[in-house]
Design goal:
Layout: H1 4-23, H2 28-65, E1 70-81, E2 89-96, E3 100-105, H3 122-125, E4 130-140, E5 143-152, E6 159-167, E7 172-180, E8 185-191, E9 203-209, E10 220-222, E11 228-230, E12 240-252
Antiparallel strand pairs: 1-2, 1-12, 2-3, 4-5, 5-6, 6-7, 7-8, 8-9, 9-12, 10-11
């Protein structure tokens, strides 16, 4: 079967082989050096093409997310932290470009890690200042995904590394693992339905390690053993936490006031 990518690689390889033949007229040492360099280039061409394809894929995903200037979403949030009693809550999630995001619990304080700012993938991709690496292929359930790693160019950025699992058919991110400088490592898993044309999920599962979560100063929570334990207690260490949000509706590109994020 004809493959445009293979044809392009073949043309480039042919050009390099012509260069090698031309080099035969040079001194033996010079010819040997150029032969080695040319062969290395030939074998690296498929990798270079893959890297370019991955960059294009990330830009397509970003372009889809860029369609959303703002949104207001309603959902139900379930917090699963082994040592905390947190009831299921109705929440509203607000987003506005470039990176404003707020989760409001209608009945009080929510146990939400700082990293939830990236539950909107636009916040991860909006800067564009990162190196994209092809990390191969994988599957999430029955969905084939391309694995991509993003390395920020800014050495002082809070995000150190992001690994994205991209559904190439729908141009959406199915899973994202992010390592940060100050808030540990967390993982997002997303399911899509009615709002897939905008790259917005119907469900988000946010997993994190509670030892990396920085509780606000003076805040206490009701623990399962009936005790109020403050920030810094050993019960906050080495525990896994999970926040699930099932979205029932989105209002997209209708405007969100800046005052919402204050």
């Amino acid at each position: 079967m004809y493959n445009r990518k293979d044809a392009k690689t073949g043309r480039n390889a042919k050009s390099l082989l012509c260069l090698i033949i031309h080099c035969e007229t040079l001194r033996p040492r010079t010819f040997a050096v150029r032969l080695v360099i040319s062969l290395l280039l030939i074998f690296s061409l498929p990798c270079l093409c893959d890297a370019q394809d991955v960059n294009v894929l990330v830009q397509k995903v970003r372009g889809k997310l860029d369609m959303v200037n703002d949104y207001q979403a309603t959902g139900r949030m379930k917090t699963n932290v082994s040592f905390l009693k947190v009831p299921i809550a109705t929440v509203k999630v607000y987003f506005k470009k470039p990176n404003k995001l707020k989760v409001k619990n209608e009945k009080g304080i929510s146990f939400i890690p700082k990293g939830t700012v990236n539950i909107n993938m636009n916040n991860l991709l909006s800067s564009g200042k990162y190196t994209v690496l092809d990390a191969g292929n994988d599957k999430i359930g029955n969905t084939a995904v391309k694995v991509v790693k993003l390395l920020p160019e800014d050495d002082n950025a809070d995000v150190v590394l992001s690994t994205l699992y991209i559904d190439e058919t729908n141009l959406v991110i199915r899973r994202a693992k992010t390592t940060t400088r100050d808030n540990g490592t967390y993982e997002l898993e997303m399911s899509y339905g009615n709002y897939v044309p905008y790259g917005l999920p119907d469900k988000i599962i946010f997993s994190f390690n509670t030892k990396d979560y920085k509780m606000p100063k003076g805040v206490t929570f009701d623990f399962d053993d009936g005790n109020d334990v403050k920030k810094g207690d050993d019960k906050l260490k080495n525990k896994k936490g999970k926040v699930e949000i099932d979205f029932s509706s989105y209002t997209i590109n209708k405007g969100v006031a800046d005052s919402v994020f204050q």
